[in-house]
Amino acid sequence: MGENSKRKAENSAGGDGKRTKTKKQWRTPTNGRDGGSYQQQQTIQAGDVGIFVTCIKGKEGKATGEMRDLLDDYAERLYPEALAGGNDEDEQDEDGAGSGVDDIEKEISAEVQEIRKPKAARLFTPIQLSTQCIIFFKTIDPVEPVSLVKRICEDAMGDNARKRTRFTQRLTPMTFMGRVSAEGLEQVALKVLGPHFHQEPFKARTFAIRPTIRNHNILTRDSIIKQVASLVGEGHKVDLKNYELLIIVEVYQHICGVSVVDNDFEKLKRFNISELFEPTPKEQAKEKSGSE
């Protein structure tokens, strides 16, 4: 008994008589409703579609959570067919009577089916970026980012709108994304601009271009505007104040994205839901003077 205790003491002390400490490994918390991590995909990739979300500095995690809840809610309302898988199995034998063992088996089976159902979370995949104050939600069909963001902002602007977010600020939909280079931007822009500017029969439009560049130092704002304007094509005119269509270009590190929104963008506070839910005194004064 004494020898065993002595050996344990020697082993715990190490060769030099000092007890060694091991560092704890930090692990990303799993915040998903189904126990999975939010970070299923680590970076934005060429071909992705989605929504950039800006937020209060240091509140990226909370903004991710509240936006995920908000998007889940809209998914259930706007895309019920995409979330309807597994309902048939759940509804079978609801009224049937059975033994206690059968009931337990049915309960377990129902829970398994619930887990396997397509969830709203699969329509929206949050991606934490390496830059503060911004996150990205990757979307998949049938979600169309521009119409979804506009709907969210229109609802937030309503008279009876209940504030749904605390840390989220601006939503920027991206119709398509690709590698950032002159060639990559051209490919993305042509794909996105076509339905708006190159349709038949031809319809002349007034437009503006609004680029945002983050963590990137190759393409410049002026070069982006010049290139995208040339891709719009002839017959359309630039009008920075009274545009019909606004071309949004987002450049983040090695990725660029493009979307086209209508002139409701200004009325909807440039898709800043924080301003829509709670306008700042400056914005309220501006609205008041405009209505007089």
Automatic annotation (TrEMBL):
Residues 1-42 are annotated as: Disordered. Keywords: RNA-binding. Residues 155-262 form the THUMP domain. It comes from the Eukaryota. One of its GO terms (biological process) is tRNA modification. GO terms for molecular function: RNA binding. Coiled coil: none annotated. The keyword RNA-binding applies. InterPro entries: THUMP_dom, THUMPD1-like. Residues 27-42 have a biased composition (Polar residues). Residues 1-10 have a biased composition (Basic and acidic residues). The keyword Repeat does not apply. PANTHER family: THUMP DOMAIN CONTAINING PROTEIN 1-RELATED, THUMP DOMAIN-CONTAINING PROTEIN 1. This is THUMP domain-containing protein. It comes from Cercospora kikuchii.
